[in-house]
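Hi support team,

I've been running sequence recovery on a batch of backbones for a student project. Most finish fine, but this one hangs at about 90% for roughly twenty minutes before it completes. I'm not sure whether the input is malformed or the queue is just slow. I've pasted the structure tokens below so you can try to reproduce it. Let me know if you need the job ID as well.

Thanks,
M.K.
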């Protein structure tokens, strides 16, 4: 099976050559839809008993044919697979209990599936108890989804303007301080950094607002630096993940629970924002502070490339044993190296990449790492998310010359993000009791424990497919990206607001907007606009 996946990946590396000179959005959907169906018969990163774990033990829906980690039965000669779906039975036999459902996948209808795998001896007698798995088969990609012309460039500016003119930006402009009533200012590092980045983007794309936009960016950047740990401390130059001054009591539990902790990786958000502000202003203090953050990461890296996920903000000691995902730290180091010719991070990059390949990329354990969701007690693979996979893709394919191995694993991670988190058509189950998700399809939801359409996730998976298109020229990848960015434009409101939870329709409620999610949407929309307008 791995050989088939490798063949598909190799074919994608050639795909762009045949379409040279054509409009990149001139899709042959009949051909793409047929190709998508064929590829859905190939499992995503199937496990190998005793070697590679099966990542899908907690998964509940699949677009790609799954393979499960069922146990071998002593003296079994073969195994019978029976999938009951839509009142029909689909049956095949195999020599092992871990065979992907490829042989019957295209016949199984969308909807609930009850799978029974029974071992049989050489004389045809049943051995042991049947092994059972219940799951849902989800709708495949079947374009086109949006046919009207969309103005992606205008959507990006409108989204940045919304952040600027809402209290999220205006309180910085008027007082130089974060709005205490904007509840997500409690997540200082992430939200203040995203505000800086949105304002830098606005300054570059809306000349008449440049002065005010940079004033907001400078104010938020000043707060990031002001509240950071001082030089000489274990987490020198790290801004806080959690900030106690926000006024919304709905976050009090999260803040109390984490009052002395910080998410180790989140200082990257501040460093990236400060580099963006340095690019916009040329003011050295922002570059220096960002470099110091990167140096703290380098100084705290273990010999095997490991960093902890959550640490005590004052001592730097880990508070939980789980490792953080290093890809955004690697992005920061790579940016300093490539864009600014800063030396000294080469060894850090090598060690961290080795850890990434040996751990995350080998296992596909993309467990969620969110500051508002406790990760303690989660078993491996229990709360998978598209976000970790997307970050890996973004890092590996942003390299000047990614290797074939890097491209192939990124294609596989994009397939994972589609398989588990993308909804191309009507959801099979509606989380949190909302029927409004029907109106915002297609979309991507965030994680197993938050099955809600989120703009950040929709934008992130769109970005992943864009990255793959840029490396391979595969039109199916670009068609998937277009479908998802179109959904962002579709839900955008007249005032520029892109709802974080995409069915949230209150245009006056900035308290439901995560600024970092808006920033991710801006990045995806801007990248797609550049792709379709490049010569």
């Amino acid at each position: 099976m791995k050989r088939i996946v490798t063949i598909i990946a190799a074919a994608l590396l050639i795909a762009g050559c045949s379409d040279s000179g054509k409009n990149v959005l001139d899709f042959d959907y009949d051909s793409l839809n047929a190709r998508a169906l064929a590829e859905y018969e190939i499992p995503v990163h199937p496990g190998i008993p005793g070697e590679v774990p099966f990542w899908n033990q907690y998964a509940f829906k699949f677009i790609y044919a799954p393979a499960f980690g069922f146990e071998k039965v002593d003296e079994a000669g073969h195994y019978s697979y029976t999938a009951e779906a839509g009142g029909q039975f689909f049956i095949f036999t195999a020599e092992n209990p871990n065979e992907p459902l490829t042989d019957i996948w295209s016949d199984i209808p969308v909807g609930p599936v009850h799978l029974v795998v029974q071992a049989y001896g050489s004389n045809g007698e049943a051995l042991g108890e049947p092994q059972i798995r219940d799951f849902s088969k989800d709708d495949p990609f079947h374009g086109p989804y949006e046919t009207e012309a969309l103005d992606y460039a205008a959507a990006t500016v409108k989204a940045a303007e919304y952040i600027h003119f809402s209290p999220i930006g205006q309180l910085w402009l008027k007082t130089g301080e974060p709005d205490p009533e904007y509840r997500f200012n409690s997540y200082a590092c992430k939200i203040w950094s995203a505000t800086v980045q949105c304002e830098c983007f606005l300054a570059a794309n809306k000349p008449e607002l440049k002065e005010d936009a940079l004033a907001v960016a400078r104010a938020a950047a000043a707060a990031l630096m002001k509240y950071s740990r001082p030089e000489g401390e274990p987490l020198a130059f790290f801004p806080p993940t959690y900030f106690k001054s926000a006024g919304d009591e709905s976050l009090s539990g999260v803040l109390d629970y984490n009052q002395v902790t910080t998410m180790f990786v989140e200082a990257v958000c501040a460093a990236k924002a400060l580099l963006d502000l340095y690019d916009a202003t040329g003011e050295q203090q922002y570059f220096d502070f960002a470099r110091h953050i990167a140096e703290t990461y380098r100084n705290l890296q273990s010999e095997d490339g490991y960093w902890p996920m959550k640490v005590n903000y004052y001592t730097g000691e880990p508070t939980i044993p789980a490792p953080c995902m290093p890809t955004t730290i690697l992005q920061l180091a790579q940016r300093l190296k490539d864009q600014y010719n800063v030396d000294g991070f080469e060894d850090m990059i090598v060690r961290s990449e080795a850890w990434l390949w040996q751990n995350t990329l080998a296992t596909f354990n993309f467990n969620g790492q969110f500051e508002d969701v406790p990760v303690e007690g989660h078993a491996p693979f229990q709360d998978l998310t598209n976000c970790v996979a997307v970050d890996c893709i973004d890092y590996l394919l942003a390299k000047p010359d990614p290797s074939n191995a890097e491209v192939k694993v990124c294609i596989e991670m994009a397939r994972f993000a589609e398989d588990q988190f993308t909804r191309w058509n009507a959801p099979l189950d509606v989380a949190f009791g909302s029927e409004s998700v029907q109106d915002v399809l297609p979309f991507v939801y965030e994680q197993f424990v938050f099955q809600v359409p989120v703009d950040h996730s929709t934008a992130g998976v769109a970005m992943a497919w864009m990255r793959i298109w840029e490396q391979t020229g595969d039109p199916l990848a670009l068609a998937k990206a277009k479908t998802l960015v179109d959904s962002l434009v579709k839900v955008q409101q007249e005032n520029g607001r892109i709802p974080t939870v995409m069915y949230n329709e209150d245009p006056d409620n900035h308290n439901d907007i995560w600024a970092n999610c808006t920033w991710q949407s801006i990045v995806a929309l801007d990248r797609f606009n550049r792709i379709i307008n490049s010569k």
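--
Follow-up from support: It reproduced on our side and the slowdown came from queue contention, not your input. The chain has 18 helices and ten strands. No action needed from you.
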